[in-house]
Structure formats: C-alpha cells, structure tokens
Amino acid sequence: MGAALERVMAALNERGLAVRNRRGYFMAQCPTHPDREPSLSIRPVVGKVWLHCWAGCDKADVREALNLSLADLFDDELDKSRLPTPVVVAEYDYLDEHGELLFRVERRFPKGFRQKRPDGKGGWVYNTEGVRRVLYRLPAVLAAVAEGRTVWVAEGEKDVAAIERAGEVATCNPGGVGMGWHPSYGDALKGADVVIVADRDDKGREHARRVLADLEGKAKSVVVVEAAAGKDATDHFFAGHTLVDFLPAGEAPTPPPVVTEQEAPRRVRLTKASTIKPRPVRWVWEDRMPSGSITLIPGREGIGKSLTLVWLTAQLTRGTLPGVHFGAPRPVIYAATEDSWAHTIVPRLMVAGADLEMVYRVDVVTQAGREAPLTLPDDCEGLVAEIRAEGVAMLALDPLMSVIGHGIDTHRDRELRTALDPLAKLADETGCAIGALAHFNKSSSNDALNLITGSRAFSAVARAVVAVARDDEAEDGSCVLSQAKNNLGRLSVPHLRYVVDEVTLDTEEGPAKVGKLRFIGESDRGVTDILGNSDGDDKSSRAEAAEWLKNYIGAKANKEAAATDVMRDGTAAGFSRDQLKRAKAKAKIESRKAAFGEGWVWALSDPEESAKGAKGAGHGDMHPSHSSALPSPETAEVVQLFPGTETPQETSC
C-alpha cells in the first residue's frame, strides 16, 4: 500500500466511514453528504490516489472533510511543476444599483477564485479593500423586486447563470459559502418572494439557513429547495429537470416514476430573448473546431483520423494549438475503444509530444463496483462533473459510434438524437469541445457529409465537420484535411495536407514503431476534389488535360503561371476546374505561394517534363527555386501556424 493510500485510509477510519475493497480499488462512505451506500471511489494509480464521489461532491470538499491536502494524495512530495498553471475560465462582474462596476470575480482552473477591483487607470488591483460588497446581478434583482417577480438565491455565479437560462432572476453573495452572507445583502430583497437553492451538502444547507434567518422579516416569503439531481442548480437543470422540479430542503431525491412520453407532464415555457446574453464563438482550433460544440472528424480507414485526434490532444496539452487556449495548456479526456492504450494510444501521445499528465483515460464504475463502457447518454452527467473539476478543453471520442448506448439505432435520426442531443448540451454547458471520429460508408459521393456512416443526425448535430481523405494522386502519398461544415464560422479555410511518419519509440520492453501525423502545408485540392468525380472525368480526359497543362506552363517564362490564369485559360480550352486540379499530379506540377500578396502559382516540378513542355517554345531552364527538394513558402507558413512541427521530410501517409 502506497503512502498516499495509507493516508486516505487512516482519514476514513478516523471518521468511522465504512470502506469496501473492490479488487484494485475501494468504495467508502463520502464524508461530505449523508451516504447510506458507499459512493466515494478510492482508486490507487501510479504514485497517487484518485478520489471521486459518484453523488457529485466536489473533490476539494472531500479532501477538506478528510483533512487531506492535494499533496497528501501523492506518494512522494508533490512536484508543483506537475500541476497546471491557473487559467481564468470565467469572469463575473458585480455592479451597484446604477450599473457601475464595483469589482470582478475570476473563476480559475484548477478550481479557485480571485477578486479584483479597477485601479482607476485601466488596470486591476487584486483585492477588494474599501469596495462595497453587493449581491451578484444587483440591478436585475432590484428591478425584479419592483416588478413583483420571484428572486432565486443560489450559492455561486455558475448556478445563477443556470437559473437565468431557465428564465428567472437569480443572485448570490460574493464568495459563496466561503465568505458567507452579510445582513446588508438582505436589504435588496425587502418585500420580495425568494427561493433559496441550497447545495446538497452540509455546508450548502448551513449557508441556506443563514440566508433564511436574515430574510425573515425582510422578504415577503422565503422557500428553501434543493436540486432533484446532483449537487446544485447547475446539475439539476443539466439532468433535464425544470424549475418546478426542485425538492423541499432536506428531502432526499427519489427516482422519478417510469412513465411513457404520452403520460409525462409537460408545459410550455417562454423565455424572453432579451434575457439571453449573446456570446462570441470561441475556437479551440482557430476557425476549424469551436469550443462548446461537437466537431466530427470523418474519413475512411487507415488515413490518420485517430492520429489527427492525437495531434489535437498533444497541441492542447502543450498550449500550442492556435485558438482560445494558445499559451495555456489544458487537459483532455480521451475515450478510445478500438485501440490498446498501452500498445497504441499512449505511444502515439508520446511521439506527438502530449503532456501525459494532462490526458485522462475515461473509465466508468457502476455503483456495484463493476467496470462498464462509457455510454451516451447515460454517462453525460458524470462527464460534466469531471470536465468542470479538471477544466477539460476537449473530450476526444475515438470513435463516436462506440459510445452510443446499446439499443439505439444509429441509422434512425430520432433515436440517435437521444444520445447526441445530451452530448451537444454537455458541450454547451461546460464550454468543452467534443472531437469525435466517424467513418465513411462504401457509397460513392464527393460530399463528405453524405458519406458519414449512420444517420444524417451525426452531421446535423455537429456544428463543424473536418473531413480527411487520402490523395491518391499525390506522389508523396499525403492526405488532405478540409472543412466540410462550419455552422459557427467560415467554410473557406485552407485545405491542409499531412503525412504520417513512422517513428521509433524506445520502451522498457524494446523499440515500438509508432505513427506520427505531420502537416506539410496547404493544399489547393480539397477532400471534395479527392472523393468525387462528378464531371465524368476519365483517364483519357485526364491525360489530355495533363498534356495541355505541361505545354501551357512549359511555354511560360520560368516554367510557371498564376493559378488564376491556369484556371481561366484551361476552362476556355474546354477543361473543367476539377479536371485541371486532378491532372496536376499527372503533369508533375506543383503549386506554391508567389511573392507576398501575389497569390498562388503552378510550376513544372520535373526537369525532364520542363524540357518536354518547352519544346518549340524557346525558353530557358526551370528556375532553381522550383526544386521539389526545398520546402515551399506555404509549408513554412504552416510550420509557424502549428508550433512544434518540424520541417517536412519526404515521407508517405
């Protein structure tokens, strides 16, 4: 037994909490809530102990109740360098009656809060000395009291936002339970009907009692309620409950009765658009993968889909992915069912440069202590708790199909949405991006969305689709990544070309061969061009187009021509744009950026072809800058776009 596990067991025994051995891990009564059946999982892993309460209790609260520090969960002295750098993930403004900013609260990952006030010079001072303490959303609270509307009092700003999304006015005191309720806060609620939402733990209920005591004689009426699922108002709504489903304080939630859709009580709820705050789109991968949404990554077998997801994971954990988390490494939860973690996933993560301390394999343990596969929508609530607790930037599903619950027909839109809609809600509620792999079916089409195996709901629910395909006409065997759908941004982002290198990884049991994805530049040929042949192109017409290209470009000075000129003159000669693009490889023509601001050019890359193309034209040799051995300007741009990538070497996908 490691030192960390010994400390945890001693703390549980000291408090008389029952512990059960589950062969490799333990279940114990949780110290932060009334726990008849053990719901606290204690799982020893290499060098540390993992604690998780399946009733939804916060990990920090569990540690505090056991009088354990974060360092106590590690066998050796905690190396602070292994902890992530705190990152601001949300900000909450506290305003006075007139809407003037008094102070601001930062919520940080890992869990923590900091308060700051304006310094009067455009900056901030990280304290609130001399600043008046007021309720959160004070102007809205005063307006609601004047209009006779009910005001809800929650424990924190996150729960206030959840209640506001349900159409009600809500507030909380700064600092929540930690700083307590001041009697001056109740003055703003004089004459109001108030609903207090107590967190379902001892601290939350004690805080609610103090608020209730202060409001007696001030408020018109006061009711104290608790969530019907989870710990707080946020969990309550995420579980699908409504405002009318809150339980009277102190009542343990009971499982809802099993009813049919026809028997279930229903009501229509209207929410004024004026109460919904607009939010900007935040991009995990700039212009390609939005935060808080599902991004689908479809493609055929064996072209590096999983390596693309591994690459994204590595970039996020290192803080090198262009987007909202650039410069701020963030954790990733990785769910993979088709590959071995020891033989495939971890080696791939290592050669991609991922910070393994920030990548989490996701497992599910039932109340009976048995391991079970991650399943949607059943495990959405558990995922939400972990995403929030760890500040996760992306949930990687490799593939998405493998986590859809058994019994759900993935070819029927309505059934599939019972799994996908809660997943989309999970993303929206947490701000976590979902990166999900999908497979192409066997049909023939140049539309990536139509090729996704299963119901059309897969591509409909996803806000973005990043498709990949192997370019069989590329001499280096490279693949192409294209934006096939982008509901939240522009679709006209450049196609990217990548190869897969074979890397040797030294392990304790000997060398292992591992694939590593490497972007080599932009591509003027996209996935749509690769997948389909919609204009009836065949070998003879392609050969004819290739011959025209060689003669056309070979006759130019420097053996190159602007891409716009090629398309204009080629279509005038009777070839389609797609035919010209597909004939480019056969004609041994490369594309590259011209001088800054001058667009793309097509140039002959083979000296022999240059000579053939120049017969009778009277032009000199190919310009040395066209040599295929040199990295092209667009490759250099991509190397800068993706920090950590190397200068391209000749390889295949």
UniProtKB/TrEMBL annotation:
<feature type="region of interest" description="Disordered">
    <location>
        <begin position="608"/>
        <end position="653"/>
    </location>
</feature>
<dbReference type="InterPro" id="IPR034154">
    <property type="entry name" value="TOPRIM_DnaG/twinkle"/>
</dbReference>
<dbReference type="InterPro" id="IPR027417">
    <property type="entry name" value="P-loop_NTPase"/>
</dbReference>
<protein>
    <recommendedName>
        <fullName>Toprim domain-containing protein</fullName>
    </recommendedName>
</protein>
<dbReference type="Pfam" id="PF13481">
    <property type="entry name" value="AAA_25"/>
</dbReference>
